[in-house]
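User: quick one, fold this
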Amino acid sequence: MTTALWPTPPEPPADEIAARVEVTRHGAVLLVRMRRDDKRNAIDVAMTRALDAALDLLEDDPELRCGVLSGGPPAFSAGTDVSVGPGAPTARGGNYGVVERRRRTPLVAAVEGMAFGGGFEVVLACDVVVASREARFALPEVGLGLVANCGALFRGPRALPPATARQLLLTGDPMGAERLHQLGLVGELTDAGGAEARALELAGRIAARSPVAVGATLAALDAASADADAQGWIDTETAVAQVAGSADRAEGLAAFFERRTPSF
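Assistant:
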């Protein structure tokens, strides 16, 4: 992705990066929990750097066989922190340090509360999704004069019926976890507050399988969509370039900060 939607912020100090995620080992499973509760885990440059480091660890440590990505009880993620932007894509992970990453280690999303915008796109970049019945998913970018630029334009129609993906992308309206479970995106539903524990249980089952076979399976699944993904990123870049300097983007963001309805 080469067209910048956000200015490049300065690199944050190491302690700020470390505070953005909590990383804990559960045997061969790595739990990565986003910890910016006051901002509903909106992704800024410090969060991007923290997620990138955590997923590097997941991929590089041979003792780790599966990961769980969670936002904890309040929310999975509200997406990009539009007040500052998410920082530059990382070398291994792309935007947010997540969405363009090539992994041989499976990653399970544990979703409570909202997974909006880039938060939803992070979910789409995971391999398995566990969500509480009260979780909500949305791609609200069009309401800000933006487009989804982290994979939803092509992963959405792959993970969901194309008509449903179009509805989410074109309206920006949220959709509940129960409906997305019916449509196949959410693999397992839990009661409120139970997504992380269920995701850890599921990840433990994956970690108990042959790591060679799991890694080879994941690589084969990714290879099957590699050409489509490459074209999807090109098409996404074209869409981003069309909105990057538009009056609609300026109006959408101004309305967001002024807490009013935009006038497009």
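User: anything notable?
Assistant: The radius of gyration is 17 Å.
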